[in-house]
Amino acid sequence: MVKRYGMVIDLERCTGCQTCTVACKVEHGIEVGSGISVQTVGGPHRDTPGGTYPNLSMYYLPTPCMHCDKPPCQDACPAGAISKRPDGIVLIDEEKCDGCQMCISACPYEALFFDSDKNVVRKCNMCSDRLDEGFEPFCVLCCGVDAMFYGDIADPASDVSKLIANRNAYTLKSEQGAGPAIYYCAPQPPRRL
Amino acid sequence: MAFQRRVRQAPVTQVIRTVCPLNCGIACGVLAHIKDGNLIKIEPSDHLGTSHVCLRGLSAQKMVYHPDRLKYPLKRAGARGEGKWERISWDEATNMVATNFKEIGEKYGPSSLAFVIDQVGALTTTAMLGFVGACGGTFIDPSGCGDVAGPCADKACYGSPWWYGEDYTVQFDNPASIFVWGENPAETKAFKWRMIRDAKEKGARLIVIDPRFTTTASKADEFVPLRTGTDAALALGMMNAILKQGLEDKEFIIKHTIGPFLIRTDNGLFLKEKDVNSTESDKYVIWDTKTNEARNPETPGSTPALTGAYEVNGITCKPAFQLLTELIDQYPPQKASEITGIPAQTIERLGIEYATAKPAASYKGLGGTRGNIHGDLNFRAICTLAAITGNISFEGRNSSEVNMTALMTRGFPGVLPLLNMYEAILEDKPYPIRSLYMARHNPINQYANFNKIIDELVPRLDFIVVADLFMTTSAQYADIVLPAAGPYESTDLYSPLGDGSHNYLQLQPKVIEPLHESRSDINIFASIAAAMGMEEYLDKSPEEYIDQMLASGHPSTEGITVEQLAENPRLPNAHAIQGFGTASGRFEFYTELLKPFGQELPVYLEPMESPKTPKAQDYPLTLLTTHPKYRIHSMFANVSWIREIDQGPVLEINPADAEARGIVDGDTVRAFNNRGEVILQTWINSGIRPGSVNICQGWSPEHFIGGTYQAMTHETINPAQQAIYQPNIAQYDTLVEVEPIT
User: Fold this and answer.
1) Which residue among B273, B320, B454, B546 is the one 20 to 30 A from B49 at the CA level?
2) In B, residues 144-203, which contact A (CB 8 Å cutoff)?
3) Using the beta-carbon criterion (under 8 Å), do B215 and A48 form an inter-chain contact?
4) pTM (2 d.p.)
5) Residue B654 pLDDT greater than 60, yes or no
6) Residue B103 — left, alpha, or beta (φ > 0 → left; ψ -120 to 50 → alpha)?
7) Domain ranges, ordered by start, for chain B
8) In chain B, what residues touch A31 (CB-CB under 8 Å)?
């Protein structure tokens, strides 16, 4: 069976602490931007809820690169700088990237960002160099609330596959057909007495 | 306990286990990756069998190598606050400090030399205490900066200002319900949050009581949106519903609280055996309903009365619980509803849930103690609610101590709570303070009433020294600024805090050399000591001092050495605490000492700047200044990685309050009261309770368009808190008005 790396992010557990955002900067030496960003789903600004006081709701949505089956960024790149490994990880070759940013507008997930210092587009590579040596992605290691899981989503016996099945995990904008490999467990509704 | 995880490291990199030294209250174990003597990466280490790090800890390298680090000692070259400086040598700096200390000490007495330190480990604090003692000076206890009303309540209820006394109300294996009062651990206390989250995942229902819809509230099963600072009224309303249905835990009240002890109605003091017979006995007295007589509580077979009034030796007495009941009777849910803004039915339902879905854990944060100058009463009412329902745990409470007097070989420092410092500087009460040395602490930015500090306190001080990493707000007003070694540049000891945050004894080894000309705080004290003619003082290594601190004589640290801690962090030896530290040995919801203030019971008192006061006609909005995940007090406000996310200060306001003032999202506004003002951008936030606004704390004047948020807060002393322990700054007991700036 061909390995397919993917992640599951538990939105019930995620507290929007932004540790993953900064962890990515640390691991990959990124001054401005990050391979993962944390959106607030609720009000008009980060950390604000939607609704009318006191009937409010808010949750956080961390979005790394979705490492799609059919990456729209790859199709959009005129320089042929974007490739997909057999294990599903989508990579940008910074040597080939000329900074045209066509990929940024092609990505439905706003997962890519432009590094003006290096004049290249950057994004999450799922810490492929760490994975290849048997280490977890750095954001997964640093997540303080155990909300991030990674593994082989093609193997039904893997922990991530079980989590996807047990929690009915879903992907974002699945209707667009890119086939994202990042799954989300929905926030739980409040339990009334 | 040893760290087992494999660590990926770059070639020629050294990985050292140390402690995130930024002291949010957790002190996470971290691994520092060092290459060519430079800190290149932080990652989480093992900590209490798990691991943790946050966006601030991970950003440490940005703080350490920040271009704005203070690089060498500076002497003021213009007026205070003018920003003109002259570079001087360490010798000149320490000689100037020593000369001023000598002159001011001779003129006003050595106690006029005040020192304050915070955000450092136990060794550095111990070194400062020792140095202050050697100078004969005064240590300013900074805990009153919003943190000390909880300990006031803990002293009253449990008998010790054990930090928040929280263990008593949270240590349950499988709580059925969790009540979080005025705290946002999902954002600010990760370890505590994981305990709550784990219990919730096991089935506990989570109720979050807060005026603000926080991250923690977003995870709750029920959000209880009370008015700021009215926690005691909610707790009293819940107790009313509980007593009405007879759901109180009588056995617990009789066995573990002063509920059955008789109180004299003539003077409000506990009836003692000496009042009853001719003995000198200070033992408490109960009324035995079996024999209808006053007896010693230990009398076998007695059935103590909890209610009623009894005549003993001609003195009318009532059990303490009767007096509590009389207070609770005044707070039916409808009245509690009028005070708190929570529907009466909800209050009743919460009371019944709290008394029946047991055990119910109560996590108490600082919101309720900052939102009301009587914040200690809020904590006391919450603790009393726990006590009358038996939701108090005695299990697994341990104490540990390191020897904080280890370096007081030349005398003990005087100690003055920070709020008393204002009076000491302005009115020489209880004695004059004329010199202030601030180390790794930013009082001018973080203490209340900024304009008063600048206009009145600063000019009264003959000499101001700041030792820090950056030109903080406090440093800007100093006469001498000393570059302190930063996190990771000095060795320290982290000991258990005991508020559910961390229990480890951890060594924080120095992993890089101090940058620029900076020196560790201990080395700075040693230099000043030498310049003052105390060369032999502070001449040992940090490791030797840590060993002295571990040899505290307390069973919790017996046999533990710095060498062991260098190998692995560890829990202190278990040393169980028995019972309560109160005079009665029981939980005390009746505090004799507070009788002169009418606060012997956990009464509800309105905030000083309540929206029900006349002041609210001019300033109708309660100002909250809450703690965000993006900073620890004023630290990290200059760290680029974090500023990219949290770009600057905003005033958060409910859409209804904004609309009423013609404020549109993003407008520049002026928030103000009779003490001062701040000018900044607005954010519309539906999670802010109507009638209040929020500015996350820790920003400095340079971050605002004008003014600063602390210009509106006040430094009023609550004498009842002073009597029981220490007075607290009630930052959110502050009324303001907001207007758009066109």
Assistant:
1) B546
2) 186-187, 190, 193-194, 197
3) no
4) 0.96
5) yes
6) alpha
7) 14-64, 74-144+401-567, 150-257+325-388, 615-740
8) 640
